[in-house]
Amino acid sequence: MIINPLLIIEVSSPSTEAHDRGSKFFDYATIPSFEEYMILHQNAPIAQLSNRINADDWHLHTIEGIDAQIELKSIGCSIAMRDIYNKTENL
Fold first, then answer.
1. How high is the pLDDT of residue 88?
2. Where are the domains of the chain?
3. Which of 37, 43, 59, 64 is the most buried (most CB within 10 A)?
């Protein structure tokens, strides 16, 4: 179990997407160290990245396309969608 995460990344399927964005996110947001939440879509190169602005406010940003880059500020790195979706089929 990880106690003080900065970043949580999940792969969402159509059947789990509403839960991931809803009650699960709100549970994670109660963790003081938690700064970023990324949901990756299972069937398309789409990521939704939420960044904590302050205790109660979050900024949601959607990143789309296989050639896009994602900047993960909480851990100081960026990653290409092409690398995330490498070796996946039907994209």
1. 86
2. 7-84
3. 37
